[in-house]
Write a structure and sequence with these properties.
The chain is α+β, with helices and mostly antiparallel strands. The chain has helices spanning 25-77, 83-96, 122-128, 140-147, 173-177, 210-214; strands at 2-5, 8-12, 101-108, 111-118, 132-133, 151-153, 182-190, 193-202. It contains 6 helices and 8 strands; from the N terminus they run E-E-H-H-E-E-H-E-H-E-H-E-E-H.
Length: 215
């Protein structure tokens, strides 16, 4: 028995007997009624899920708008101090993207300086804050420098060449020491010039969505 919604088959109601014994007209009508009820149940579930999805999207949009507003408020209240701006940006990015850690780097020629962190252990933060590094080519920072686009690594342990550090370069220190597995790196561009990087990390293998990558 087909499950029809506006003439389109969305499922199948199938009954079997182990013996040769045709169904009666009354039984067939009963199954048709069950099929109609199943279609109603499926449609109700679809509408409910669609409404839930709209609610989630509205909630995410409101959260992003709130986060953007917070950053703009900090920028306007601290025009000469970048540190609170960086801290607010990282805090919001980590929270909204359901990440664990965040780091912000500023580009200085062919090197990067770690200027802000979020969710990092105090001892590690003290050790790495302000360090000037020359990132290895296969790290997130190295790849961003080449392509000036967002870099997403689902699992650093499965990423070929990620931990290779040629002479004269620095390895993925923060990622290694903070136990990061999934990484997302976003370039900070000013008129196509790379001026910095925002990185967020997860300590489990759980890729970021396209929406999270673009936020």
């Amino acid at each position: 028995m087909p499950l029809l919604r506006e003439g389109t088959a969305i499922g199948l109601f199938l009954l079997h007997r182990a013996a040769v014994r045709p169904f009666t007209e009354k039984q067939i009508k009963l199954v048709e009624t069950f099929a109609d009820q199943a279609v109603i149940a499926i449609e109700n579930a679809r509408l409910f899920e669609a409404e839930q999805q709209r609610t989630r999207e509205l909630s995410e949009s409101l959260e992003q708008q709130t986060a953007t507003s917070e950053v703009l408020q900090v920028i306007s209240s601290s025009p000469g101090d970048l540190q609170p701006v960086f801290a607010t940006m990282l805090e919001n990015a980590v929270r909204i993207c359901d990440a664990k850690l965040g780091a912000l780097y500023r580009r200085e020629a062919h090197r990067v300086r770690l200027v802000a962190m979020h969710g990092v252990e105090p001892a590690l933060k003290e050790k790495l804050q302000g360090r000037l590094l020359r990132p290895a080519p296969n790290t997130v920072l190295g790849r961003i420098a080449r392509i000036k686009e967002t870099v997403h690594i689902a699992d650093v342990l499965a990423e070929q060449g990620f931990f290779e550090t040629p002479a004269g370069f620095d390895g993925p220190h923060l990622a290694l020491q903070a136990g990061a597995r999934t990484l997302l790196g976003v370039p900070m561009l000013r008129e196509k010039e790379l001026v910095g990087d925002v990185l967020i990390y997860r300590q489990d293998v759980r890729p970021f969505t396209d929406k999270q990558s673009s936020w």
